[in-house]
């Protein structure tokens, strides 16, 4: 526990967080409560039972993903399959980035999620400084806004930065909060005609020295550092105290109708689009900027189809096993033969479906550390 708290302290000490609530981590004696707000949805657990719960959770994960047995053979249990023309699993490896993504329709009739990966979408000094873009968009009321975000938001970011004429200075001097606010506002204005359709957005701009995450809605970004899961965004849920206060101050109401919803309709308090719910639903993102260190392992960006049924800690544990080659999904499909980031994304989507997720599920896994060829 002391090591976990030490890692979290280290991460928070280098985090430049802009107008976003900090996570509260409190450790007392073994008979006291350990409270974690954010990672497990604000669940309180007795410290004495924590290890037992952890081991039970780990056993369930191993049983599902078919961890290797002692003799090196794979478990033969059956698994859900991603083999569908409406599902997508992608693996990309290059000199600077290894990432994988998976999108599944799940139990929904329509696919409203989209994902976007754009390597080197920003570059300066003849490509010496490069930045990669990763985005997950969870549409509602239709896929039009999510599709528009997929095609446009990363381009809008480039346009905003270039308009600021940063030139050879790269993006080190960017006021990321202002840039992202302007970009999300522009994106919101572009889709305003789709009055009854909207989308959440969680995006990560990854450079060699820093990582920028902007979030609008209840999709989420989580980073694993030295084995510890650290949320880089906080879900915009209508019953989040500061969001509830903001909605009510604007003249709106949050109604508990099959879950807390703005005006009893929308289960997220921020999104791009949804013109009919403004000003109660805002398109303003919350932005987190952190400096990269050698201890950072990977980032997971995903829609709430994953996070509704899997905790940050479980997702990081599964991903870590996949990246180390200790876990492979039992159903075969695109990306399964190479393991790594795409394998992790695929396993996470299957695990979410097995746990009863009723939503579309989209996951991007971005490795931040180089792996040796023998580790996959």
Mean pLDDT: 79
Number of domains: 2
- CATH fold descriptor of the largest domain: Phosphatase 2c, domain 1
Task: State the low-pLDDT regions, or none.
Answer: 15-48, 67-81, 91-96, 333-337
Structural class of the helices, strands and pairings?
alpha+beta
Beginning-to-end CA distance, first to last residue: 29 Å
Estimated share of beta-strand residues: 25-35%
Q: How many DSSP helices?
A: 8
Radius of gyration: 20 Å
Helix content: 25-40%
CATH hierarchy, class of the largest domain:
Alpha Beta
Largest sheet: number of strands, sense, barrel closure: 7 strands, antiparallel
Overall outline = globular
Q: Specify the CATH homologous superfamily of the largest domain.
A: PPM-type phosphatase domain
Q: How many beta-strand segments?
A: 18
The ordered H/E elements are: HEEEEHEEEEHHEEEEHEEEEEHHHE
The CATH architecture of the largest domain is: 4-Layer Sandwich
Cofactor: Mg(2+); Mn(2+)
EC number: 3.1.3.16
Domain PPM-type phosphatase: 98-368
Protein name: protein-serine/threonine phosphatase
């Amino acid at each position: 526990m002391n090591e976990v708290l030490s890692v979290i302290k280290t991460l928070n000490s280098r985090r430049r967080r802009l107008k976003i609530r900090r996570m509260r981590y409190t450790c007392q004696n073994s008979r006291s409560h350990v409270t974690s707000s954010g990672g497990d949805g604000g669940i309180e657990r007795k410290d004495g039972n924590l290890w037992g719960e952890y081991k039970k959770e780990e056993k369930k994960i191993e049983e599902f993903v078919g961890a290797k047995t002692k003799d090196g053979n794979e478990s033969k249990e059956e698994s859900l399959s991603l083999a569908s023309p409406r599902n997508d699993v992608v693996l990309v490896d290059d000199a600077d980035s290894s990432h994988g993504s998976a999108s599944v329709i799940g139990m929904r009739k329509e696919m409203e999620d989209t994902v976007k990966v754009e390597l080197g979408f920003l570059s300066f000094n003849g490509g010496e400084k490069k930045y990669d873009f990763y985005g997950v968009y969870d549409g509602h009321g239709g896929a039009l806004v999510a599709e528009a975000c997929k095609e446009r938001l990363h381009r809008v970011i480039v346009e905003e930065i270039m308009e600021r004429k940063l030139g050879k200075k790269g993006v080190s001097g960017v006021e990321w909060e202002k840039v992202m606010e302007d970009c999300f506002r522009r994106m919101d204005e572009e889709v305003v005609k789709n009055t009854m359709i909207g989308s959440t957005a969680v995006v990560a701009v990854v450079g060699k020295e820093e990582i920028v995450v902007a979030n609008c809605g209840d999709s989420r970004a989580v980073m694993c550092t030295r084995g510890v899961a650290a949320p880089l965004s906080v879900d915009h849920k209508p019953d989040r105290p500061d969001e509830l206060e903001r909605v009510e101050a604007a003249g709106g109401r949050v109604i508990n109708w099959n879950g807390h919803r703005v005006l009893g309709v929308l289960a997220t308090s921020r999104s791009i689009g949804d013109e009919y719910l403004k000003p109660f639903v805002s398109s303003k993102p919350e932005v987190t900027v952190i400096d990269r260190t050698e201890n950072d392992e990977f980032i997971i960006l995903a829609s709430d189809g994953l996070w509704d049924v899997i905790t940050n800690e479980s997702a990081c544990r599964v991903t870590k096993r996949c990246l180390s080659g200790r876990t492979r999904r039992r159903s075969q499909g695109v990306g399964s033969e190479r393991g790594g980031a795409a394998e992790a994304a695929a396993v996470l989507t299957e695990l979410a479906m097995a746990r009863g997720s009723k939503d579309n599920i989209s996951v991007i896994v971005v490795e931040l550390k180089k792996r040796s060829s023998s580790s996959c």
